[in-house]
Amino acid sequence: MAHEDYKGIYPALLTPMLEDGSIDERSLQRHVERLLSQGVHGFYVGGSTGEAFMLDREERMRILETVIRANDGKGKIIAHVGSIGTRETIKLARHAEEAGADMLSAVVPFYYKAGMKEIRDHYLTIMTATKLPMLIYHFPGATGVSLSMDFYEEMAKEEQCIGVKFTSLNLFEMQQIRARCGKDFLIFNGHDEVYAAGALMGADGAIGSTFNMMPGLFVEMFRCASSGQWEKLPKLQEQANEIIADLVRYDVIAYEKYVAHLQGSLAHPTARQPLPQLTAQQQEEIRRFFAGNSLLKL
Prior knowledge:
Elements (H helix, E strand, L loop, with lengths): L7 E4 L13 H13 L4 E4 L11 H15 L4 E5 L5 H14 L3 E5 L8 H14 L4 E5 L1 H4 L5 H8 L4 E6 L4 H11 L4 E4 L5 H6 L4 E4 L6 H12 L6 H15 L4 H11 L17 H12 L7
Parallel strand pairs: 1-8, 2-3, 3-4, 4-5, 5-6, 6-7, 7-8
Helix pairs in contact: 1-2, 2-3, 3-4, 6-7, 9-10, 11-12
């Protein structure tokens, strides 16, 4: 499959949960169908927004299988299989391939201090275990790991490694990845609040948490960027950032789950412990904001 086929807008999917914290597969299916109806190009399953590192392996596998069924071949499925250890990541990667995912992604190993050689070997070992293309997941704000330009250049030479989910506000670094790795190395913008700027710097699309709440707005931004209508992007980004500015006053996952609950996708806005749950006062504040924002009610 050509790299061109993967460009687009991919929600970093929430993981709906019942009030007891178990997986709510019916809400997950409903949420996937709603996002597809608004034009998203696929899904990033089991990432940070999906609370992946608080799920066990069986839950991560079941969530991916549920999304693949609900997607029904309409969009591309990027399965995030990252974990601290290479062996665990390989088990999830092999399952993703068997389940029918289109691409793998894995966050860089974190907590333990691995160097560039060890991180490169980590990715090469995973890729050897499956035939699926790999998307590096760069998120220094969460992992504490910054990848070097030499690392990107080396990885871009690997046929199976086709790009990066770039979750950083350092857009100069994003532009340098494009300059050094070439036009065929996919770059997905990862911080939603700077997608317009990321597109200008060469991003091929975006993988974003807030796409769970306002997918249509970012689909329109992608359409404008793809057709060279750059003058429309600042206003669209401003509309997105009005919502994001309210979001960052609260816990991100709790807020997004509550908005998705108000939109009718999620039966319950539960997040898994130890993530915070919204107080009754916070829910009322968000309800008032939701009521006054037409974009969230689409």
